[in-house]
Specification:
alpha/beta, D-Maltodextrin-Binding Protein, domain 2, 12-stranded mixed sheet, two-stranded antiparallel ribbon, 13 helices, 33% helix, 20% strand
Length: 351
């Protein structure tokens, strides 16, 4: 199967330019892979006669390392995990945004997240896209009813047919939910129980992999269950692979959200703000939601009118009130707990 036909397209990590080289201005953005789709970027480039240079990364730690190794002013726009915005604000990386020019009133209420995006009444970022780390599966090869119980991920019924997404925060969060622990309340005392379930999961898993290998494993039938999957895995594959599905189990799911802001040291803050406003526009949101890298829910509810019935169905648009109510944000541990979580994850990977 050709992966691009299946809807999985992954941009190169290298700096990418999608506009003509003769554009009068340039803008440098540190982004997740969904922003590298030309269908998203080129309309903005044409309208503003700008070349948008995009560098893709995975994991906030990687982004912060890139920024640390860059010169002041090298970067203009920052796409970052929503729970990590306070970390970027504390580091002085983000510039204030004019709240009155942002479509906050059109966002899903749960995505406004003032506790993350504002500080002392000042707005530094805004949610742009969200989704769920939960369980994706091939309904032709598993019992869908099994997938509604989080404990399936560490059980042995599907031993050798499970892949695990290699990102410690959502997977630890999922295990915590399965054990009845809220993601925001995970403590050091919970880690031994979480560690035990992670090890049971590893014993029954065929592979642990990052975004590309995880999506590829379930899309090609190498595995039947993907722990940490969700709409970002299956929504874009609905037409080609209708047997792929996903569910938010009875115990809930882990909700991720990505935010966008402007670098404090950018020398092109006005143009960077225009980019943020474009991404948050209904048209930009629809393009971002159905990006060739991965699909997920747009934060702006006004994007609905720019999505087809089939696209809204694939994204489970009408189920969002239930999913939002039953999901919890990524764990946001302090430095000490985060180090302990990473130690547990390292043990998990090495097992």
């Amino acid at each position: 199967m050709e992966l691009r036909k299946a809807g999985i397209f992954f941009a190169a990590v290298s700096m990418t330019a999608t506009a003509a080289a003769e554009a009068t201005e340039s803008l440098n953005a540190l982004v997740w892979c969904d922003h590298t789709d030309p269908a998203l970027i080129e309309p903005f480039e044409r309208e503003h006669d700008v070349r948008v240079n995009l560098k893709e990364y995975e994991g906030t730690g990687t982004a912060l390392a890139i920024v640390d190794q860059s010169r002041p002013g090298d970067w203009d726009v920052f796409v970052i995990d929503g729970v990590d915005v306070p970390r970027a604000v504390d580091a002085g990386l983000l510039a204030p945004l004019p709240a009155d020019e942002l479509p906050t009133e059109n966002l899903f209420p749960e995505l406004v997240m003032p506790e993350n995006h504002t500080r002392d009444g000042v707005t530094y970022a805004i949610s742009e896209k969200f989704g769920y780390n939960t369980i994706s599966y091939n309904r032709d090869n598993v019992d869908p009813a099994d997938m509604t119980d989080m404990s399936v991920i560490w059980g042995d019924k599907y031993s050798g047919r499970i892949a695990v997404y290699d990102y410690y925060l959502p997977i630890i969060g999922m295990v915590a939910l399965g054990l009845g622990i809220n993601t925001a309340e995970i403590s050091a005392s919970d880690l031994p129980a979480i560690r035990d379930k992670l090890f049971e999961m590893k014993d029954n898993s065929k592979q642990v992999g990052e975004v590309v290998s995880s999506q590829t494993a379930i899309a090609t039938g190498e595995v039947d269950v993907l722990v940490g999957g969700g709409e970002w895995v299956t929504a874009g594959l609905t037409t080609e692979l209708p047997e792929l599905d996903w569910v938010v189990p009875e115990q809930g799911g882990v909700r991720w959200s990505q935010s966008i802001g402007v670098f404090a040291e950018s020398e092109k803050k006005e143009l960077a703000l225009e980019f943020v406003k474009y991404i948050l526009s209904p048209e930009g949101q629809a393009r971002l939601a159905t990006s060739s890298c991965y699909w997920a829910m747009p934060a702006n509810m006004a994007a609905a009118e720019h999505l087809s019935d089939a696209q809204r169905a694939a994204l489970r648009w009408n189920s969002q009130p239930d999913y939002l109510a039953r999901s919890q944000l990524y764990p946001a541990p302090d430095i000490e707990l985060d180090a302990m979580m990473q130690d547990v994850w390292t043990e998990f990977l090495q097992r």
